[in-house]
């Protein structure tokens, strides 16, 4: 089976943190989400995985160097979701392709989605659920009829997880920015039965679109309220501390925390926070409900 992880975006809502790392490399319980996603897909039997990258792409190239079954597609200009997929076409096998956004964490059964697509005979199968904040797709009697682009009362949410037949990408111009959602809307205009849906209500799903979302994900994983992928390790929460961290005497950890290879001075208080590798916390500081990242150009 083959998959593609879309990891090229700028992550502007997560500035200034995305000046330091591209969003798919943000640490989740001290593990870059992109690496955990690749390990998860590999463990499910996806033996050919393409990852596209643009923003701070050198970091992604370095992190994925040497990984078996992984092909990195560097994009000198941002191509969008459609353009990135179209540019990958020569790298793909002649078989359905699982596509996942590189900034989502979920427990959707992607192998079941893949099997449903094979059995259904449609050009595309979307994993969909009810999520009011993102219910932007109108579905009537189990059929996708319109991508509204905004939350609507009778909509469902597209998870960013889908399976497509690669040949549908051929009409898209190569090396040109485009949206896969716009392309799907055109497919529907030609064939109202082109796109199937697979409901995944009850599965956990979140993206890391904002600092609040990112903190909530780490908090839920650390405290056990969000199901944890085995690929994130089994270290007990609620305090995840990297072995390389240097923590001085008298430091107080409150509530929960995820601490990378950081240096924390005496008598500091850390609570409800994510500290990345390279962060230095001065003695006596109080850090609560925050993301601390090193300066751009520092350690990653």
- Based on secondary structure, the structural category is alpha/beta
List segments where confidence is low: pLDDT < 50 over at least 5 consecutive residues. Answer: none
Cα gyration radius (Å)? 20 Å
How many DSSP helices?
6
The share of residues in extended strands comes to 25-35%
The CATH homologous superfamily of the largest domain is named Spore Coat Polysaccharide Biosynthesis Protein SpsA, Chain A
Q: State the share of residues found in helices, binned by percent.
A: 10-25%
**Overall tally of domains:** 2
**And the CATH topology of the largest domain?**
Spore Coat Polysaccharide Biosynthesis Protein SpsA, Chain A
So what's the overall shape?
A: globular
Find the count of extended strands (DSSP E, 2+ residues). 21
CATH class of the largest domain: Alpha Beta
Return the CATH architecture of the largest domain. Answer: Alpha-Beta Complex
How is the main sheet built? 9 strands, mixed
């Amino acid at each position: 089976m083959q998959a593609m992880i879309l990891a090229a975006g700028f992550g502007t809502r997560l500035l200034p943190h995305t000046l330091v790392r591209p969003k798919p490399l943000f640490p989740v319980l001290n593990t870059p989400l992109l690496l955990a996603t690749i390990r998860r897909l590999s463990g499910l039997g996806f033996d050919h995985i393409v990852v596209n990258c643009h923003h701070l792409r050198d970091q992604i190239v370095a992190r994925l160097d040497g990984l078996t079954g992984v092909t990195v597609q560097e994009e000198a200009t941002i191509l969008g979701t459609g353009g990135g997929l179209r540019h990958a076409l020569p790298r793909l096998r002649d078989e359905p392709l699982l596509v996942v956004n590189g900034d989502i964490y979920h427990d959707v059964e992607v192998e079941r989605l893949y099997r449903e697509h094979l059995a259904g005979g449609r050009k595309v199968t979307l994993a969909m659920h009810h999520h009011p904040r993102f219910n932007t797709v109108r579905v009537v009697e189990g059929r996708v009829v319109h991508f509204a682009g905004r939350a609507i009362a009778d909509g469902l949410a597209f998870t960013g997880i889908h399976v497509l037949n690669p040949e549908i990408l051929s009409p898209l111009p190569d090396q040109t920015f485009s949206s896969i959602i716009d392309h799907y809307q055109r497919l529907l205009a030609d064939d109202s039965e082109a796109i199937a849906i697979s409901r995944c209500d009850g599965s956990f799903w979140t993206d890391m679109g904002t600092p609040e979302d990112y903190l909530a994900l780490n908090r839920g994983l650390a405290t056990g309220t969000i199901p944890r992928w085995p690929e994130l390790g089994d270290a007990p929460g609620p305090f995840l501390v990297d072995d390389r961290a240097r923590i001085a005497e008298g430091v107080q950890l409150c509530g929960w925390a995820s601490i990378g290879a950081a240096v924390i001075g005496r008598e500091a208080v850390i609570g409800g926070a994510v500290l990345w590798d390279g962060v230095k916390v001065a003695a006596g500081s109080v850090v609560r409900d925050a993301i601390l990242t090193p300066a751009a150009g520092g350690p990653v």
